[in-house]
């Protein structure tokens, strides 16, 4: 089916007419004599708000809904809503019964033609050769097409062949994560990805992937910004909060020629191996905004300005962005840099011993991602302009590891009442301690609901938490 426009005229004044285009959903077919004909399915009006591409997308969606009775996925909300409206009109129209009867007749005719041309084949006579997987490859290829990655690569100095190889590498590493050598083996023996992209599998080797990876690295920051903006536009995401954190990975080799691989504090407790740091900024929807690679011995506190500053120019001017980070980044230098560059922040207080006063009597109870209660209350510290929020959470009891592995029999019988009693004692001590210092819980950084609760409590004042 397709959308066709015809010229019509309407009278706007005496002896004066104005032309306009009227659009209709049509279907091409052949009559009994084999001559091509055209039938009108339904009218759409002027479609003033649709360009040529959107009208073609609308025709594709309506074709799937009318002929197959299924909803076609379309990322354009304008097209999707219009398709639902026109399909509802089609279901209520008199042409629906005629069209469905005609569709049944055509389906029966096609089935009869297929049965006449069908040939009986003995399945045991088939032998499978060069079997290829195509499902995941096709899904990834469709996703990359919707994201417009190929057009981005072509605009940034990639040739047609280089763009295809880069897309092939991105998809292959998503489906078959591993070394370049293993990726080449999967492409040549298991996957139909090369055939889908029109690439000879035998022409791909590890050196091809190495060269492609180096070329992708040259545009990786531009690509991050492009994909971030593209996904936000596709799904209508409005960013207000950014979450920043670091992790690291270890290497079991010596890595003597690498300037990035250094000994440091491994998150996986591999102090015997050299590590590389990875900094990542994500929004509350889990979408990556920026990534950076650091030396393994780089201090966490020295990474914030480089990462956040790399996308500072892309933030909107009408709304302030909020950076959420843990205590490892909240030095005075970093907090001053955030304030000077127009950012608000939520972090954990690094120093202890300050005396504080309650800002008001408003208290709120929220739950973290493990459904544990966290009590929030605004407090103020004399001489500091930042706004503080006191978090009181029930800590977990510290149990002996050996006792946890093999507890005595008498302890097994009364373990749970003992744990409750112990937790109550610890809670009382924590509350008493919190009256003399500002104690902020790290659980707040694990739950977006807790972050939003803090924002709601402090929305009347300038947030500098």
β-strand number: 11
Poorly predicted ranges? 398-403, 408-446, 460-465
Share of helix, binned: 40-55%
> Residue-averaged pLDDT, rounded?
78
Global structural class = alpha+beta
Q: What's the helix count?
A: 16
End-to-end CA span: 58 Å
Q: Which strand order spans the largest sheet, edge to edge or round the barrel?
A: 6-5-4-7-8
Shape: extended
The major beta sheet can be summarized as:
5 strands, mixed
Query: Compute the gyration radius: what is it?
Result: 32 Å
User: Which percent band covers the strand fraction?
Assistant: 15-25%
One letter per element, helices H and strands E, the order comes to EEEHHHHHHHHHHEEEHEHEEEEHHHH
General description of the model:
- This protein is α+β, with helices and mostly antiparallel strands and 465 residues long.
- The protein has helices at 52-67, 77-92, 95-117, 135-147, 149-155, 160-175, 180-189, 193-197, 206-218, 220-235, 304-309, 332-340, 401-405, 409-413, 415-434, 448-457; strands spanning 2-13, 16-30, 36-45, 241-251, 274-283, 288-295, 322-324, 344-346, 356-367, 373-381, 388-393.
- A five-stranded mixed beta sheet has the order 6-5-4-7-8.
- α12 links the parallel β7 (322-324) and β8.
- α7 (180-189) crosses α9.
Main features:
single chain, 465 residues, alpha+beta, five-stranded mixed beta sheet, three-stranded antiparallel beta sheet, 16 helices, extended, disordered C terminus
Secondary structure topology:
Blueprint lengths: L1 E12 L2 E15 L5 E10 L6 H16 L9 H16 L2 H23 L17 H13 L1 H7 L4 H16 L4 H10 L3 H5 L8 H13 L1 H16 L5 E11 L22 E10 L4 E8 L8 H6 L12 E3 L7 H9 L3 E3 L9 E12 L5 E9 L6 E6 L7 H5 L3 H5 L1 H20 L13 H10 L8
Parallel strand pairs: 4-7, 7-8
Antiparallel strand pairs: 1-2, 2-3, 4-5, 5-6, 9-10, 10-11
